[in-house]
Specification:
Elements lengths: L4 E8 L6 H15 L4 E8 L9 H9 L3 E2 L6 E3 L1 E3 L2 E5 L5 E7 L9 E6 L20
Parallel strand pairs: 1-2
Antiparallel strand pairs: 2-6, 3-6, 4-5, 7-8
């Protein structure tokens, strides 16, 4: 069994909520994980456009050793936005991160990624049995 610890957190920041609210939440989460060797993944709608300069938010990610692995726009309400993010402290563990238009939303794309978990192979189980025949 793998000894890795994963912490997945779903995020939704209302567009009218202050940016400092999400920054404080991320700081609190990472402060609690600092002494535990957690693989942290925050995924959801952060309502922070990563296509623009967001110095405070990007500084928060850098200070906490986090990075966003979604690189293309995810919201197309007039101008393209990158607000649906996958933020992690282990970006090299993820690959094939994409933003897909599914038609389920009028302007948001689905964000998905894949990772390879390191799970050791289990030993094969051997069963010994006898067949009894009644005569």
């Amino acid at each position: 069994m793998s000894k890795e610890k994963w912490l997945f957190i779903s995020v939704y920041k209302q567009p009218k909520a202050k940016l400092n609210t999400i920054i404080e939440c991320i700081d609190n989460i990472m402060n609690q994980c600092v002494n535990s060797d957690f693989n942290v993944v925050l995924i959801g709608n952060f309502s922070v456009n990563m296509l623009k300069k967001n110095k405070d938010f990007k500084d928060c990610l850098n200070v906490n050793g986090l990075s966003n692995i979604v690189k293309k726009a995810t919201c197309f309400k007039g101008v393209p936005f990158l607000i649906d993010l996958i933020i992690t402290n282990r970006p090299k563990r993820f690959k094939n991160t994409v933003s897909v238009d599914t038609g389920l939303s009028d302007f948001h794309s689905l964000v998905c990624t894949s990772t390879k978990f390191h799970i050791p192979k289990q030993k094969a189980t051997t069963f010994t049995y006898r067949k009894y025949v009644q005569t």
